[in-house]
Amino acid sequence: MATSTVKYLGSLRTEAIHLKSGEKIITDAPTDNHGKGEAFSPTDLVATALASCMVSIMGIQANTSNIQLGDIDAEVTKIMGTNPRKIAEIIVTISFNNHQYSDKEKKILENAAKTCPVALSLHPDIIQTVTFNY
């Protein structure tokens, strides 16, 4: 079964529909590539998917390892390369707020993040810089 559909809406904008839930995502080309930059660009979604996947997999691992995950925020920075234009680096800073972890728990959470499916699916030429702030 298909996962989603994508429709071109004109003016470098698309609408993606997640078929199982009906949820929609609008994308725009970025301003540095002829677009309006009024929504996530496709490459923004790739970079953001990395952080979302990392946090989700840490949540799964925390549940199976009886780790109290607490409040987590992730900040994402996407750096584009040129010639060819592509994602060169994704910087993810994950901040754990109001919770203390043992060294063992930190290692478990960090390994979960760095081995999430999106991290493992990205081309090895894309630099993944991940920082964990406890």
Structural description of this entry:
It contains 3 helices and 6 strands. It has 134 residues and is α+β, with helices and mostly antiparallel strands. It has 2 domains: 30 residues, no CATH class; 92 residues, K homology (KH) domain (GMP Synthetase, Chain A, domain 3, 2-Layer Sandwich). Helix 1 runs antiparallel to helix 2. The relative contact order is 0.15.
Descriptive labels:
134 residues; alpha+beta; GMP Synthetase, Chain A, domain 3; 2 domains; 3-stranded antiparallel β-sheet; 3-stranded mixed β-sheet; 30% helix; globular
Runs with pLDDT <50, length 5+? none
Approximately what portion of the residues adopt beta-strand conformation? 35-45%
Helix content: 25-40%
The average pLDDT is 96
Kindly report the CATH topology of the largest domain.
GMP Synthetase, Chain A, domain 3
**Main pleated sheet:** 3 strands, antiparallel
Spatially, the strands of the biggest sheet line up as 1-2-3
CATH-level-4 superfamily name of the largest domain: K homology (KH) domain
Structural class designation: alpha+beta
Structurally, the number of domains stands at 2
Secondary-structure arrangement, i.e. CATH architecture of the largest domain: 2-Layer Sandwich
State the shape: globular
The helix-strand sequence is EEEHEEHHE
Radius of gyration using CA atoms only? 17 Å
Counting DSSP E segments of at least 2 residues, the number of strands comes to: 6
Query: What's the helix count?
Result: 3
CATH class of the largest domain: Alpha Beta
Distance between the termini: 41 Å
Q: Which oligomeric form is depicted?
A: single chain
